[in-house]
Amino acid sequence: MTLDDTRQPLSRVIGGKSAEAVSKALGLTTVGELLRYYPRRYAARGELTDMRTLVDGEAVTLLAEVVSVTSRRMQQRRGTIVEVVVSDGTDRISLTFFNQRWREGVFRTGRRGLFAGEVSTYRGKRQLTHPTFDFFPEDVDDDPERVATFAGAFIPIYPATASLSSMQIARSVGVILDTLGELPDPIPESLRQDRGLMGLTAALRAIHRPVTQSDIDRSRTRLKFEEAFVLQALLAQRRQEIAHLPARARIEQAGPLLQEFDEHLPFAMTSGQRQVGAQIASDLAGDHPMHRLLQGDVGSGKTLVAVRAMLSVVDSGGQAALLAPTEVLAAQHFRSITSLLGPMAEGGMLGGHDRGTQVALVTGSMKVAQRRRDLLRIISGDAGIVIGTHALLSDTVEFRDLGLVVIDEQHRFGVEQRAALAAKAIDGTRPHVLVMTATPIPRTVAMTVFGDLDISTLEGLPEGRAAVVTHVVPAREKPSHAVRAWERIREEVAEGHRVFVVCPRIGDDGIEDQEFELDADAPDRRQAASVIDTAEVLAAGPLAGLRIGMLHGRMPPEAKDAVMAAFADVTAARGIDVLVSTTVVEVGVDIPAATVMVVMDADRFGISQLHQLRGRVGRGSLPGLCLLFTEAQAGSPARERLDAVASTTDGFALAQLDLMQRREGDVLGATQSGRRSSLKLLQVVSDIDVIEQARSAAISLVDQDPSLGEYPTLRQALVELVADDQAEFMEKA
After folding, report:
1. Is pLDDT at 511 greater than 60 in this prediction?
2. Percent of the chain that is helix, strand, coil (3-state, to 5)
């Protein structure tokens, strides 16, 4: 039987027991998924694995030679221990087997093979306990299966687990390759010929069973291009779909609300704000929906650009909705936009602007009576601007004429959520969509993740925006620096300023507020600082006598609102001087009186997240100070990250560094699951040429054949990618 359908269950090809092991260890269930599980690296025949890089807890596959075999009785209990010492020529490790004395006859000094297991240390010696293993064949005529596995000049080493070794993965892949027929190829033949690319079947054989270095290089080149090409074809199709959807054109020239808003602005807009505003106005005037991403560094003034776009839609008789990821941020937007508009946010009310509108807030925790009043204002059209969280997506929220959807922090929302809000427009039209992010996006990521959007970059900072200085505070190495930091905070509070203290955890039950990885160099991997404990320590110690408040995601909404209001109001008799918080203040919170941002255990946060937190201070005319407390050792990777953040305020430079240091899946984001699963070999940092060439080829192909009717295999690949991404965009755009 020849295998030509990679969608078959693994159990049909490699057997139920092997399929179950692969599924349990790797989460792979089909033939295609296992074929796309590529080797991490290759070991050349005759070369031994470098054991000097091994760390405890790592699942490894070692290419080594048997040095000695011994057995002895256990002292504390009955039975024997067989200890096999293997070496790569520079270092040694023990293979330990309990009550398996027959292993003595299996291992012979001088034999070479692959040994797989989890590294551990016992009494100062590194070992693999009950590892799996396979020797190189001594007589090529004895075992054809082994010969097939090890006959090549290169031995594939797969990402393995403690329960499934690289050798076991190689055997399962080998079973598939032995029956593999010619597979349909998603890259059109003409494009393969133009670029000199291998066919799909040849590439899969070459990457799993390479004979030469050229096999490895050519197969990786082909498969990388395929990953980029299929993704770019999907994005090109999405742009085509958007371009043909109907939308209601909104006026391009400034209407009365927008004109009056501009006239009463207490500051001059930056050239960047004017330029991006003109791009958005032109898009809104079109009869196809705008689909634009607005990216700008912290403090660049994206909210002002969004407000002007919303007002232009209200001027044309429509409504605008702003979707925020958290209730704290939604409430912050509501307060700041209402304040910016002044009487223009009180249309139809006593003392309000005669041509004004109203601003409504919709969150999941609103009281029933208030929610009912706001829903009536929305469906009647009295509320021209609607701000809310995921609650806006519910069926109970109906708009009279939704003309614009503004989505803050694009990476927090999936395609389906955006589509659900867009579907609330009337008459079969689609609203214009503006998505915003304060996380600068390197060009390669923009092309890979946001390629279906037009991208505007807001450059420059508003005049009068104060600079923010950042210092790393090595609390363990230099305790005096920490003492001085808290003294400086008392001085800032004495001047009437506000201070943030951010912690990774809440602390009341030991559950982390956010997911983060502990670096190998993190000091003794102790539990990270928590909001509750830190607030207590500060109140009893270095900040005694100051008014300290707490804010975290598990507080009731009313309590969160009260805390933020007290923190923002510098005139309040019962105000808050120091706010100890989780990362709920990371994005969008705008407190002009806040001058200091303290981040506890800063090494537990990523570069971009630290940059966002730093952006919460220095937002007015007062200079800002960011203090990154850490116990990470000087020279460690974690400390180098913090030093990088302290060395520059260029968000784009930091985003590029973040991209280089993090895994692809982290960069592409949890909501981009299809992207993450589809990119096995493509590196968005180093493969910019591949991405650009694939993008150009995909756009050209989709322009010629938007439905891809002549390319059924490519079309099927897009269907599978969309399914992985959990985004039925073609139907819901």
Report:
1. no
2. 40, 20, 40
Q: Does residue 442 carry a pLDDT above 90?
A: no
How many separate domains does the chain show?
A: 2
* Segment among 41-50, 108-117, 136-145 with least mean pLDDT: 136-145
- Domain-embedded: residue 21: no
CA distance 430 to 731: 12
Place of tokens 């687990």: 161
Region of residue 618 (phi > 0: left; psi between -120 and 50: alpha; otherwise: beta): left
Output phi, psi for 518, to 5 deg.
-85, 125
Residue 55 in any domain: the answer is yes
pLDDT tens digits, residue range 417-435?
666 766 777 777 889 999 8
CATH code assigned at 112: 2.40.50.140
Say which range, 328-332, 354-358, 569-573, has the weakest mean pLDDT: 569-573
Q: Which domain holds residue 102?
A: 41-157
Q: Which of 98, 133, 157 is the last residue of a domain?
A: 157
CATH code at 511? 3.40.50.300
Residue 423, in any domain of the structure: no
Does the pTM of the predicted model rise above 0.85? Answer: no
Alpha helices, DSSP H, located in 381-478: 415-422, 443-449
Asked if 465 contacts 618 with a C-beta cutoff of 8 angstroms, the reply is: yes
Rounded Cα gap, residues 300 and 297, in angstroms: 6
DSSP state of 190: H
CA separation for the pair 271, 454 (Å, rounded): 20
510: DSSP letter: S
SS3 430: coil
pLDDT of residue 112: 84
| pLDDT tier, 347 (very low <50, low <70, confident <90, very high otherwise) | confident
Which residue, 125, 157, 189, sits at the end of a domain?
Answer: 157
Phi, psi values for residue 542, rounded to 5°: -65, -25
| Residue 669 pLDDT level (bands cut at 50, 70, 90) | very low
Q: Name the pairing type of β-strands 154-157 and 291-296.
A: unpaired
Please give the pLDDT value at position 517. Answer: 38
Cα–Cα dist 80/103, whole Å: 11
Degrees to nearest 5, angle at CA 33 with 31 and 34: 70
pLDDT, tens digit, 9 for 90 and up, residues 674-698: 444 567 898 877 788 999 999 999 9
Task: Please state, in angstroms and as integers, the Cα–Cα distance from residue 597 to each residue in 192, 489, 585, 689, following that order.
Answer: 53, 10, 11, 39
Q: Considering only CA atoms, which of 669, 646, 649 is closest in space to residue 659?
A: 669
Reported residue count of the chain is 733
Does the residue 657 lie in any domain?
no
